[in-house]
Amino acid sequence: MKVDLHNHTFRCHHAEGTMEAYIQEAIKEGVEVFGFSDHAPLQWDAEYRMAYEEMDDYEREFHQLREKYAGEIKLILGYEADYLPFKMYSDVFRRKVDYLIGSVHFLGMWGLDNPSYIGEFQQRGIGEVWREYFGAIRDMARCGMYEIVGHMDLIKIFGHFPSKKPDKSVTEALVAIKKAGMAIEINCSGWSKPVGEQYPSRAILESAYDLGVPITFGSDSHSPRHIAKMHETAYALARSIGYQEACYFEDHKMHMVKI
Fold it and tell me: What angle, 0 to 180 degrees and rounded to 10, lies between the N-to-C axes of helices 167-180 and 126-143?
């Protein structure tokens, strides 16, 4: 079964395509469980996420389309909500959705995946940045507010890797994810980024498998044409590690399907 839970529409202001265009493309690509996860609002960074006043329309349109396409595809609704220990999302956590993807795009106020601020890696030190990043992933899991970890090792986006792998911080994050009952996604967007591979790495996925951490899949599409691209490669990777099932969420409850 094809599952794709990480997708963005025009409401994110840096993506394109309507909800219906995404649904039609997902059906064409044979996706059976498709989730919308537009970026939840913040009080800054407005050019990369929906506005607070758009949330009702986003949810209303989804429910109309879910009814329209019932029987053709299973549609589920979520948000991708940044984990920010200094600014938690009370509004987002109260929304009646199926799941939340928790992502770390910021360390403090540094947008770590924004190429405009790439010099920060050298100023902070790559090893320290990696430890801080995976510490944030660990803390996000411990807060108990999310179902899925988004692009778990996004910190590698520009190809910055520490000379010594921070195995302890990664392991601590995975243990916290397991204890929280969360899943990690195999996010296909990394193949189109400078790092040139999926998120997370095979090594992290192997550790996740050993710990019994469930997986799901996400195109992280920002256009309908991105949907399900590289999915066959992602599914083959998961199977080669030993995974035979993936998950999706309805009303925050995990469901497993064969892959």
Answer: 10
Rounded to 10 degrees, what is the CA torsion of 131, 136, 138, 142?
160
Percent of the chain beyond pLDDT 70?
98
Within the chain, what is the greatest distance between any pair of CA atoms?
53
Convert the pLDDT of each residue in 88-107 to its tens digit: 656 798 999 999 999 999 99
What's the pLDDT at 257?
Answer: 98
Cα distance between residue 130 and residue 135, in whole Å: 8
User: DSSP per residue over 138-175, as a string?
Assistant: HHHHHHT--SEE-STTGGGTTS---SS--HHHHHHHHH
**How far is Cα 28 from Cα 128, in angstroms, rounded to an integer?**
44
pTM of the model: 0.96
Judged by average pLDDT, the poorest of 8-22, 157-171, 173-187 is 157-171
d(Cα 204, Cα 170) in Å, to the nearest integer?
8
Alpha helices in the chain (DSSP H): 19-28, 55-68, 90-93, 120-124, 126-143, 167-180, 202-211, 231-241
pLDDT at 120 over 70: yes
